[in-house]
Specification:
Chain lengths: 203, 203
Amino acid sequence: MPDGTSKKPSRIQMRNRSLILDAALDVFSAHGYRGATLDQIAEAAGLSKPNILYYFTGKEEIHVTLLNQLMETWLDPLVEMDAAGDPLTELLDYVQRKLDMSRDLPRESRLFAGEILQGAPRMLPHLRADLKPLLNEKCAVIQTWMNDGKLAQVDPRHLVFSIWATTQHYADFDTQVRVLLDDDPHDSAAQFLDQMYRSLLTP
Amino acid sequence: MPDGTSKKPSRIQMRNRSLILDAALDVFSAHGYRGATLDQIAEAAGLSKPNILYYFTGKEEIHVTLLNQLMETWLDPLVEMDAAGDPLTELLDYVQRKLDMSRDLPRESRLFAGEILQGAPRMLPHLRADLKPLLNEKCAVIQTWMNDGKLAQVDPRHLVFSIWATTQHYADFDTQVRVLLDDDPHDSAAQFLDQMYRSLLTP
DNA sequence: ATTATCTATAGATCTATAGATAATGC
DNA sequence: ATTATCTATAGATCTATAGATAATGC
């Protein structure tokens, strides 16, 4: 059994754990934690249900593993925002990276949204431990930029919230966006968001 | 049995249906459709489980009834946007009404978000039938305002999407917002959003 | 007479485990 | 020998119904 004490995960173990996690990301992001079943995950992974439970102790461990992996990916675009770069460029590039993530990783966005929507029962510690200090650090950077006159004065926290909201909207509310828009939203959204944040932040 | 053919709903029927729907809004918005159970709804309503099923044919009918009622409430702030009013004022007021709704009706916002997040299985027809024509109509109004030079030129659809995203974020991601912010977000959010949309839309 | 409510439980769904068997690596 | 997989099923949870009883309105 692949428990925590075993030394080296075999090739087949690595492969099957990946298959399971990818299948689970499909299923959890589409139906939520409670809406997802091991049957669906097993079917999507091409493995039997008991075999899923050979690699993970249960449904919850699969979900937690996905959320843990997600946190790093999710924070990465903000981590990359560089205090030494040009302020307006750094922020507008951050917006575009987040928008690109909504297009390229919609399942991850929805998994995250579903978890927060239901009160972050499994993610709350991560938000406190990882997201909060990162946000504080980056808001301090943004505040410095504003104090130096490189950006217009706005509330840095609400600025970042609005970037999260507007960019993730295109993944999380994709169903609605596609009902209301006839063509692919990505390019027109990119242009709109650039225009909005440029007009807001240009000093 | 209170089926569709019965004439007049009694007082007690009205009351109990309200109790059930209010309880169900609590439970569905907190745990999602699949995560909610009739036991939880019954407990929250203060009625027995079979009694719940005396008033509604099943879990799904309760959910559908809530979504149907919600659609009207949800569109109302946009309906109120008046083509005859001052363009910038109308749009900034719309933003504030939507933000107020996130504060006053967070359960409704989360119910809606959860439904869309999972592909709108029960709401898709409403989106096409009600939301899409309304959005088209209001986007035409906004476009006229822009053509008349009363507002800066931006993509009206993405403008509205961004308003939905930024305002509903404070209800749907409330858990996250409260981890990251020490005081109540409403007033500072109102100020930030006013500033953002004013700078974007002022011609 | 009709409406409303309760107890008890059927039937479906789902997570997880037991126990046997097959495949792999030294 | 160890790792991986399978069949069968236990046990929990959940929706919904059956059938009896209580409350209400003409």
